[in-house]
């Protein structure tokens, strides 16, 4: 059996470049949706902690209903079972949806504090970006502030490969703020990276508002991690690791996979051209019929067409 075990660290990124209800329903994610969109970010996952695996993303798993009664499509993501060492993967083999090799980490978005250097605005420091929202509690609605932390799931060739090279030759990427700019919107998408080595980051908004990150609410000991870390960068990386491990365990969980995937009868065509034609479920993999079985099941019309084809083949062979 081929080795499809999950890979971690810089070596895994290099290799990829060359080749249940108990879970939280929502893991926030940092993305670049438009051409020329840019973000200042800090990767919280040390490069050796980054996972690389074959991933099924945006799998349609059913319908939900908003508070206003409007319906919406529900999506989930899964690590391919083959990427976890199993011989089959139901999403790929039965439902015809191909996974894509991705590297998986965690990052926070940053706000720059500018200064003017030779007539240009340049960041002199950064602060973890936050967002405000209203939370419903037993005491009513409360306005809260939370850091912009999320999954960073990207390909190796145009994203993590660059980060891996930087980490290997320049310094730890989880200690280096980056300005990342997307170029393109389709298969031609690339990313530009501008590093700000040595520029300070204020982690106060991350540490002080950590309790408002809903996804981490059931992860115990995070406050102790922050308090006991030797420095802010280490504390931030430990938070990123806790976030990543929780999400990875969800993506790779076998019970969750079967609970959600087994009832799916078919998947609509994906926007990715590599996908196979969807195949409806029949309570198991359909048996392959032999040519003899097919002949026995043929209709009279099928038999007439087969006889005509055989005669034509004999005529062509006789004149060839």
Uncertain stretches of 5 or more adjacent residues: 1-5, 18-25, 273-306, 308-320
Q: Largest sheet at a glance? A: 10 strands, mixed
Distance between the termini: 44 Å
Count of DSSP-assigned helices? 9
**Element-by-element helix/strand order:** EHEEEHEEEEEHEEEHHHHHH
Give the helix level as a range of percent: 25-40%
How many domains is the backbone divided into? 2
Report strand %.
Answer: 25-35%
What can you see in these coordinates?
This protein has 320 residues and is α+β, with helices and mostly antiparallel strands. It has two domains: 7-261, no CATH class; 289-320, no CATH class. Helices cover 30% and strands 30% of the residues. The protein is built from nine helices and twelve strands. Strands 1, 2, 3, 4, 5, 6, 9, 10, 11 and 12 form a ten-stranded mixed β-sheet that branches.
Keywords:
about 325 residues, 9 helices, disordered N terminus, ten-stranded mixed sheet, alpha+beta, disordered C terminus, two-stranded antiparallel ribbon
């Amino acid at each position: 059996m081929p080795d499809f075990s999950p890979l971690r660290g810089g070596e895994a990124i290099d290799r990829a470049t060359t080749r249940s209800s108990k879970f939280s329903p929502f893991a926030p994610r940092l993305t670049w949706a438009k051409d020329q969109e840019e973000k200042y970010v800090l990767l919280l996952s040390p490069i050796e902690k980054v996972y690389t695996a074959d991933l099924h993303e945006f799998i349609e798993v059913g319908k939900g209903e908003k508070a206003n009664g409007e319906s919406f499509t529900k999506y989930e993501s899964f690590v391919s079972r083959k990427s976890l060492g199993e011989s089959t993967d139901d999403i790929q083999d039965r439902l015809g949806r191909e996974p894509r090799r991705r590297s998986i980490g965690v990052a926070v978005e940053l706000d720059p504090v500018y200064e003017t250097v030779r007539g240009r605005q340049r960041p002199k420091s950064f602060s973890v970006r936050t967002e405000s929202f209203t939370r419903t509690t037993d005491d009513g609605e409360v306005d809260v502030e939370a850091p912009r932390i999320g999954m960073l799931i990207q390909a190796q060739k145009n994203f993590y490969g660059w980060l891996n090279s930087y980490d290997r030759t320049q310094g730890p990427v989880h200690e280096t703020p980056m300005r990342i700019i997307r170029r393109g919107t389709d298969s031609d998408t690339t990313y530009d990276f501008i590093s700000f080595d040595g520029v300070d980051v204020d982690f106060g908004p991350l540490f002080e508002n950590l309790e408002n990150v809903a996804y981490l609410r059931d992860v115990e000991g995070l406050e102790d991690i922050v308090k006991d870390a030797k420095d802010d960068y280490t504390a931030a990386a430990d938070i990123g690791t806790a976030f990543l491990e929780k999400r990875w365990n969800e993506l790779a969980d076998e019970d969750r996979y079967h609970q959600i995937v087994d009832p799916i009868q078919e998947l609509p065509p994906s926007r990715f051209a590599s996908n196979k034609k969807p195949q409806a479920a029949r309570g198991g993999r359909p048996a392959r019929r032999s040519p003899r079985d097919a002949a026995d099941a043929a209709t009279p019309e099928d038999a007439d067409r087969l006889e005509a084809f055989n005669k034509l083949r004999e005529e062509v062979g006789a004149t060839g």
